[in-house]
Every structure is written in structure tokens, then in C-alpha cells.
Amino acid sequence: MKLNKLVSLLVVLALVLTALCSAAMADEDTIKIGAMYALSGDKAAIGTNIMRGVDFAAEQINAAGGINGKKIEIVRGDTQGDAKIAGNLAERLITEDHVVAIMGCHQSTLTDIVAQVCDSYEIPLITAISTLDNLSEKDYEYFFRLCPMNSVYVEDMFKYLKEQSAQTGKEVKTVALFCDNSAIGQELERCAAIYAPIYEMEIVATVEYQGGAADLTSEVLTLKKANADAVLCESYIADSILFTKTLTEQDYHPEFVVAKANGFADVSYVPSTGALSNGIATVVEWNPDLTKGQDVNAAYKAEYGLDMNGHSAESYTVVWLFKTAMEAAGTTDGPAVKEALENLVVDGSFPGGGEIILPYGMIDFDNYEVDGIAHKHNNKYASVAIAQVQDGEYKTVWPLEYAGAPIQYPAQYK
After folding, report:
1. 125, 136, 211, 407: least buried by Cβ within 10 Å?
2. If DSSP codes are grouped into helix, strand and coil, which group holds residue 386?
3. Reduced to 3 DSSP states, what percent helix, strand and coil does the chain have, rounded to the nearest 5?
4. Which letter does DSSP use for residue 106 in this model?
């Protein structure tokens, strides 16, 4: 009787061990990459859009043989947009789901928390989207940033104003700033103070307002009095709409208005302002008429029924970066992949893949200084594009070599 029980126990143990071994072998056949974005809550629409870019890249790579013959498995981590969740979620992805790398987050505050966790576990983290400058000031070893920092966004706005004269003949010498008095507005002011003298422009007015304002008449009249060649803006969506309508109400039509994305790039901005927004320009990370990435976008649109945007294009690119680094390292071991990312230079296109679809030609994670402050593991070639509203659509007008349309000058507002 005891012998039968022992045999039965051994059989059960053998079955359990077989199942565990099979699961382990199955795990070895995939490379697990964590993707941490808000997939529920009030920021779920942003996270869902980002994940389309992630999934599309993984599908393409897997269809072509994966990473060194192994399929990518994307493991979702729903941050719910909540900083209280981010740290524990990252730890769970690493210790329970056994991801070998993480991409995320959308919000810079969450990315900062996740970077600390990834450093402690030696897991490479690439953010496709988080732009807050100080993320790369903290000397994280395993944190890498593909997208531009906030300061790069603002510098590119000045570059556009400088270079557009080759097409319009108008030299911009003076600028005015219009911004929310919150942290985002302060960033525009800080960065503009750095780059205005570099690009030989003078800031002649800085107009702040309280976010969610019911009326912007006095602020617009102050801008009108300053009569700058260009106005640089940073506003959330409701304020962007009100500002645009108030320009026409007060008969003020600056030759150039350039926004640092945010509300001016929101999907509801043009429908809410109609023809009044024609001529207003905004920063974009990618745009459907950009001369790069057309084939990728066509395939993406065929699958999802909509065009890529900046977030989905950047998250798509990060998956390709992990593939390239892991193949260069010959392993998914964290320190080896980190070293591969540090040495990685993508020039024009990915090995065995397509072109860089973003508005720049190279990717290289480097260490450098901005205004005397050291930054680590930033893509030194990251930049943005400028799109101008023309006939109710965003048309890429800068960089000039990637533009899908000429600059409308002066802005029409009708």
C-alpha cells in the first residue's frame, strides 16, 4: 500500500516537473519586453494609441524571424496613469513576468519611478515619450531616452523660425511667449531664455495666464502691443482653442505662431477652431505627410484604420531599438544589452529592418551637457517636426528636407 502511494507520488512529481520544464522551454522561446502605459483610467486613450505602435513593431519583427530566432512577447503593464502604481508594477514585471527589458512610461513622473526600479534590477529601460529634462540628469545607468527633451522641443521651434526664412524671405528677430503659468509654461520660458540669444532673437514679451481661463482678451492685447515677429505658445487644449478665437476677436494676426504641441496638437483643436487656426504651427513628433515612414504608416493604417502619430511612431521605434541592441549583444542579459545600447548607432535604417521613420536620420544614445547641466543616455539626434494647419489639416513644413508642404506665410487665420 505504502509502495503504491510512493509510486503515485513520484508520478505526480514527474508530471509537475515535466509541466514546469515545458513552461520554462516555452518561456525560452520568447523574449519578454514590458510595456508600461496607462491602459485604463482617464489617460487610457493615450496608452492605447502608444500600444498600437508597440504591437505593430513586434508583429513585423516576429514575422521576420524575431530576435535571434526568438519571438518577442509584449507584456503589458497598466500604470493607470498613477505614480503610486508604477514602482510596484515595474517590480512585478521583472520578478514575476520575467521581462528582460521595459519601455515606458508616458508621464515623466512615472518614468522616473520606473527608472529607479530598473536600475536596481539591471533591466534596460527606454522611454519613447517622456520629455522632462531632469530624467537624464539623475545618472541612471539603465535608463535611455529616444524622444527629445523639452529643451530640444523649444530649440527646434527656434531653429524653424531661423530656417524658414530660406523659403519665406522673412527674418524673425523678435519673439513673444504666451504660456500657462504652471510648470509647462515655466519650461517654455526657461528654454526660450537659453535659445533666443543663440538664434539671434530677442524676447520682447512674456505673457502668462492662469490655466483654464475664461477670458484671454487682456493677454492677447498685450501680445498685440508687443508686435513680435513670432509668438511661441504652450497651452492645454481649452486654452489653445480660446487663444485662437481671441486672436481673431482682437484682430491680431501674428505672421508666425508656433506652439510646443500640447493643446495645439490635440485631435480636437482643429475641429474646434475651424478656419481660424489656418496658419498656426505646432511641434509634432511625426505626421502622416512626413516624407519618411510612408510605407510603415500605410501598413499600420491598413491594420488599425488610422494613421500613426508621434507617440505610436516613437513607441514603434523603441521595439526596433531593443531588437537591434539584443542582437548586437548576443544575449538578453541586462548589463550586456545596456552596453549594446550605449554603443549603438543606427544610421538611416535598422539592421535587417526599415528606415528610421522619425524626423531625423540617426539614433545614438550619448552623454552631453545642456546649459551646463550633464545629461546621460539621451538620443543626441532626437528632434521634432513642425506642422502647420493648412485648410484644416496638419501639414509638415519643417525640417524642410522632410516637409510635405510649403510654409503658408503669413498665417491666414481664415
Report:
1. 211
2. strand
3. 45, 20, 30
4. S
3-state SS class at 91:
helix
pLDDT of residue 22: 34
Round to whole Å and give the CA distance between 308 and 277.
22
| The 373-379 sheet, strands edge to edge | 71-78, 30-37, 101-104, 125-127, 143-145, 373-379, 362-370, 345-347
Give the whole-angstrom CA distance, residue 154 versus residue 342: 26
User: Which conformational region is residue 54 in: left (phi greater than 0), alpha (psi within -120 to 50 degrees), or beta?
Assistant: alpha
Residue the block writes with cell 496638437: 265
CATH number at 123 reads 3.40.50.2300
The tally of domains found in the chain comes to: 2
Query: Please, is 388 exposed, middle or buried when counting C-beta atoms within 10 Å of its C-beta (0-12, 13-18, 19+)?
Result: buried
| Helix (H) / strand (E) containing 52 | helix 44-63
Entry pTM: 0.84
Q: In this structure, what are the phi and psi dihedrals at residue 386, rounded to the nearest 5 degrees?
A: -115, 125
Domain that holds residue 194: 151-284+385-402
Percent of the chain with pLDDT over 90: 79
Give per-residue pLDDT as tens, 349-359: 999 899 999 99
